[in-house]
Write a structure and sequence with these properties.
heterodimer, A: alpha+beta, Enolase-like, domain 1, 12 helices, 22% strand, globular, B: 740 residues, alpha+beta, Aldehyde Oxidoreductase, domain 4, five-stranded mixed sheet, 17 helices, binds flavin-adenine dinucleotide, binds iron/sulfur cluster
Chain lengths: 327, 740
Amino acid sequence: MKAFAYVNAANEKEAIAALGPERGRMLPLAGGMDLLALMKDYVAQPERLVNVKNLDRTVAKTPDGGLRIGAAVTLAALAQHADVRRLYPALAEAAAEVGTPQIRNVGTLGGNLNQRPRCWYFRNEEFPCLKKGGARCFAVDGENQFHAIFGDGPCHIVHPSSLAVPAIALGARFRIVGPAGEREVTAADYYVMPDRNLYGETVLAPNELLTHVILPAPGTAKSATYEVRFKQSHDWPLAMASVALVMNGQTITSARVVMGAVAPVPWRAEGAEAALAGKRISEATATAAADAAVKGAKPMTQNGYKVQIAHTAVKRAILKAGGIAVV
Amino acid sequence: MADEQNPPAAPPPSGPARTWPPVADRALLGKPIRRIDGPDKSQGKAKYTYDIVRPGMLYGRLLSSPHPYAVVKSIDVTPALKVPGVKAAIALKDPAGPTAKIWYQGEEVAAVAATTEEAAEDAVRAIKVEYEILPALATVEQSMSANAPVNFPKGNVSAERLTLRPDKADVEAALKASAHIVEGTYSTQVQTHTSLETHGGICEWNGEKLTAWVSTQAVHATRDGLSRALQMQQSDVHVITDYMGGGFGSKLGPDVQVVIAAKLAKEAGAPVKLMLTRKEEHLITGNRPSAYAKVKAGVDAQGKLTAFDAETWGTGGAGQGAGFNIPYPVYAFGVLRQRHKDVFINAGPQRAMRAPGHPQACFITEVVVDELADRLRMDPLELRMRNLPPAGPDGQDLPTQQWRKYFPMAADKIGWSRRHATADTGSGPIKRGMGCAANRWAGGGSNRTRAACEILPDGGVVMRIGTQDIGTGTRTLVAMITAETMGLPLTAVKAAIGDSEYPWAPGSGGSTTVGSISPTVRIAAENARDALFAKVAPSLRVEPAALVAKDGRVQVKDNPAKGMTWKEACRLLGVQPISADGAWQQGLSSSGTSGVQFADVEVDIETGITRVKRVVCVQDCGMIVDRITAESQVYGGIIMGIGFALFEHRILDRNTAKMVNPNMEFYLLPGMSDIPEIDITLIDQPERGPVGLGEPPTISTAAAIANAIANATGARVRSLPLTPAAVLAALHEERSGGTR
Ligand SMILES: Cc1cc2nc3c(=O)[nH]c(=O)nc-3n(C[C@H](O)[C@H](O)[C@H](O)COP(=O)(O)OP(=O)(O)OC[C@H]3O[C@@H](n4cnc5c(N)ncnc54)[C@H](O)[C@@H]3O)c2cc1C
Ligand code: SF4
């Protein structure tokens, strides 16, 4: 990797001061599970790394009964946290399935939510693709079996974060700090499509940091995440879904259904949400919602099979949230 | 490394007839013995080539071509020399000469040596190369298409080879007369060896003499290869391989990278370590070629296989050797024909890989056999049993063809009687199924193998043999056989291997190591022991032939009380150790193994994902030397077979011929949680002597899994790997008309 300078920031303020406005030159370093690999592959070549592992890593209760989680918490700690598991099973389940135990022990919430795409053209310096400032997307008529089945390009990555998916389903807000102070955006607004930001995947400016994930009280919502993985470990989901079903007795009053690994951003399935409202949780409702969720999918040349897999993920996430045994 | 690798044995050197000790007398042989170097390996004390650091050592790095097909127009290494810490930089392509052409991605273009790995990496990136990029061929379809550019000197496709040659009329008549015919196209993917320790070595010059620590599965061939490439005397090259992290057929010589390390070391005047990166490992160190077959096969109404006609092709990248023989020679088809072509593409050339040709041929044949059974509505096991080769004149199957015995054993273990006819009709998306397949392998041993044994005056024993432990447990076997012969505990002998200055032994390929070294070590040990007996006999006033070495003593066979401890016996040597040589002889080892594997799988038909629940294996390997290391070969083979079945796939971008997954993230390998219960029954054949086992256990796994998936789902996947996409596509096809 290219030589770089290292700043060990003691707190948010120092970290922000050490970052700069130019994309890619100064980068926050959390667990390094993603960033170091990008640097070894010469895809990222920062001049300076700013350690952000000293940021807040606590999981604190909020006055309204939700949780405020510091970005430096590790995935392992998140997956094991009693309050997270009790209040937000969709999030705990997603954290527990990431990568391998080593990755979860080192990788952080902030790093996970801000990790870069795994598109194999993006990760390989020999392919100067659109996202890296090049002229074309190699996936379009190339090897796109793991690429997006939703979205209009011009870049067809799937967003890699499995935690972003439940974050949106659960209505999370992200606290962001930067030189001008702090702001909050919803998780859903945090991620943007390539036509809005081709060179990054979020609204975050290069000199800003994501410091906290704030989850509203779950109320009567039942949540779950279901991931379809080929290999059981050290691999990525082919597709996944997180759902949060707000219940009134046995009836779903409103729902959030979000699919992962299917689009450049976690993909909200509003059709599925509408299909669930007013229904009871059953195989039939779940199937109808899954049908609605994949409606409008636009698979590429090699990834048509992912439509079926996304369908299964949605169906099973709904049943899982309802406590109905899925395989 | 093909079956034919080992020439038939020359007449054995004259000498006493040799035998293994009677089974009842064996203290170590055939027992489960832990690897003697296991503790060192698990504690990190065993130093692999990758771990070795020499004083003043530099780090070498290659500049590999990013382009799969190109001409090097110019190379300027001078910017590399300006990078601080760089001591040497050499161009490896001559823009003006015949080497200017690049045939595949990753081909080495230049190399540097520097004081740190980082400086070396910076330096290769500083080298300026001008390429003329040419349109590359990425797939066999592209190469075979009529309007493809001709990228290879002898054309993109080799001449057709008729490997089995009945008249066209015979095959067609036999097919016509068949009650049922199966017709389809079958294929297997390119698999890379993915050795955990990448290829490479450390080269250190001492004047005109070279010492090379190399990650190789052939210390002697590496010595010879280095001396040829560097135009040196063989005696001036010394190759050492104490421990190595996997080769699977891809490390049978010095390769370009070690020759380059030697050149860099000379230029820099310091030792140079050059280990390939993971990416280079995938790109340039070989692979299992792909296989394609258009098959037409028949069966008569009684379940007798009638004919097998195949048009086959495959690619070993820019290299030759994509051949494989079908039908896989287990079942007796009436008439056979295979016409084969190698197809060239702009990708790294193939190399021997664990049972070259066999997993491909086994997959294609065993799937066809299952499909024929389906046509007949016959239990596929029954069809197999009916078509095994006929027993010999004595009514017995050959010891190398024991499938008639093994199939029922394995069927019993997996619970074949519970197997449903094709397609699990149970409710729910998870479908269960079973499948099976058979394998065979030659193994054997090299009659040129030699060993040297020393018995030291203080009682120590050293066995030197120029073999290497590719990970199979060879070091442990050398120690076991020596200790058994001397009547000593395992810890009392030193197994000295992995050094080209030790007596010649073949490369660890073709599953020939155990068949080469076991007889030779036994004979060298016996010769040394007998020389000791000759020294000791007079003082016991008996003939040397009356003595035995047992339980740490040298004693009279019929009167064990008369004797002395091993140490006392050795003290009689005074100052002069015993040195004895051993030459391989026939009769202490054999060739030929057979085995079967059964798989029990679950397929989720809503995701296309297969989970292998259980693999049952019945396998022979002649006389078992060490039960633990033998079983671990089978575990490893099956796990690799699961990788071949489900996960592993070298994926080239179809438009550029560059590999998109030259890593261990998207080049999927089975991890711990993907490994099922593996149930191994090893059949001991003590009368045959040892036969190699490294390759056979990886042959049938994929075929058994593919057949199990079809049994579970009713949908037939005719290509590997059995990915969710492939399984879902077959299910879809099955629903809309049928895959069978
Ligand atoms: C084999 C494998 C399998 C994996 N499987 C999964 C999976 O299934 N699901 C999944 O979600 N992930 C998966 N991962 C990815 C892994 O979870 C992430 O790499 C990890 O969570 C990143 O966290 P980190 O703390 O190490 O981030 P780092 O690598 O340190 O940082 C990642 C990125 O985020 C930026 N960053 C870090 N912290 C902040 C912050 N506070 N604010 C703004 N930007 C920040 C960094 O600059 C960098 O660009 C897998 C990884 C591997 C190697
Ligand atoms: S999908 Fe995006 S990242 Fe991948 S090749 Fe296309 S533009 Fe590049």
